[in-house]
Amino acid sequence: VIQARNISYGFGDTPLIQDFSVKIMRGDRIGLIGNNGVGKSTLLRLLLGELQPQTGTVKHGSNLQIGYFDQLRTELDPDKNIAENVGEGRDYIRIDGKDRHVIGYLRGFLFSAKRAMTPVKALSGGERNRVILAKLFTRPINLLILDEPTNDLDIETLEALENRLTEFDGSLIVVSHDREFLDNVVNRILVFEDDGQIREYVGNYSDWVRHGRHLAEMDRPSSQQRDSRPAGGAGVQRKPAKLSYKQARELEQLPARIEALEAETANLQGKINDPQFYSRPHEDVQAMLDQLQSKTAALEDAVERWAELEALQEAFRQRRNELVDRG
Q: How far apart are CA 179 and CA 161, in angstroms?
């Protein structure tokens, strides 16, 4: 998608980016993290080709189609309803290579069939942002740019965005100070660390914290829950969240892991139940007993984790249905 090699950029005698290289592949979900004023926006503009590096090169893959949230704000027609704005006059729109009815598609953004017929001029600010997101994902984009999305989006819109991102098969670059949002949507991060270096890590923000690295306290991504952030002048309670991309993948893989662990545990138990088992050398007996104990513990952990993720997913489904019905 994007390959930067040894790029540098600065203003006067103040270097912001020095000899930085990165390769962004299709499907990568990149979080850009750093102190205010260190060069996050500059790096983003360099990667997108809006700025030319003073040294080094930036190359884009063929057919790169970039989508920005804010670029569609002025395209909404306030006199048309939600479905007309998103479908652009069509009843069916093409999403991920499949034709979908615009009303059914809008349910994923918490608009009931009745609400989808509402003129945009009658919507709240949060609802308008959901319309923009719905419209954005109808475009044939393969690289989505989100610059501090949690500053402009309410809780329900953020959850709709996180939900849609789990289905988006393109690449993502997000600049954010919201730790929860970063943990839910990214799988790699580029961090402006306090020694002046930009380092790349696999995982999300919480994974990076476990490396023992630090940002300046005043600029560290917020670890506060979103339910403490005011929206529209009042506190908003965090709704049950959609599983993150990482959690959704884990839930998908857990049944096979549980089945494998059950088979291994049964196999070990069968060997231990053999009448001749305890006539073996003590070391062999103890090794197999320890193995059974380890596999049993792993099986219990896997089942417990599966139940936990299933409960989270069900809570989200119920809350989402309530919001759609209320709309």
A: 16
